[in-house]
Task: structure prediction
Amino acid sequence: MPRHSSTAYAFLSVPLLVLWIFTLMPTLGGVLLAFMSWSGSGGPIFIGVDNFLALASDSRFRPAFINTLVFAAITIPVSNGFAFLLAAAVNAPWFRAGAVARLLLFLPAITSLVAIGFAWRWVLDPSGGIVSLALRTVGLPAPAFLEGGTLVRIGSVDLLNWPLLTLAAVQIWRTVGLGVLLYAAAMRGINTSMMEAAESDGASRWRILLTITRPAVRPTTLFLLFTGLVGSLQAFDLAWALAGGTDSAAIDVLNWFTYRQFQQNRLGYAAASGVVVLLLSALAAGIHWTIAGERET
Result:
């Protein structure tokens, strides 16, 4: 083996070992635990797919599953849409404070999620929150942002309530800044001659944005859709902080459901719920790679 090859493998061995110990081993252990019944004491008992069958009939799992999907369906397109429009605005020649705007928009993305959750819970508090007080001052009723109230229901299924909508709104506010930065960087790489030609032919700025800019930044859009979906599936700390750690089904999400099962020492059952999140994330990754691969070919 050439000397430079052995050196390369030596450098790669350390990160691969860290990846194996802290990522692959816990993941494989969690998947195996999903087929066991274990409370943390004694030895685990193999029960096959019983944990997954129990999840399918669990009255708390289905709302958490639906809430997670609705949360993703709201936050991903709205966040990306706002990010695209804001990036086009801050990149426009007439906008003079682009750097400052990008910095201010990006600050929520690097702020602690728990801190954001507690801050917004204080702002939206029904008794003394700033938003509630402002609405009452102008004679408007303050919605129960964090306490319930169904907004959309299909049959017996509550698809959307005030706490879930509040969680989605805060998530959009937090993530839109990263999208602005990525879209703004992608827009700077677009050939301006096409825009100038379209403008000389009488195309409006809005038409140029939709027919030239939007297709040109499609790889960034795909990346943001994928990372947004994975981030939505992993939502936990923001929901926990907004709800104050209470066991609220209205704002329940999959990872919060999983966390509660671990708290109750239902380790195999919690692992089965985690495997569901893993499978959904793997499905999202597969779709992303397929679409990205088709685009490259």
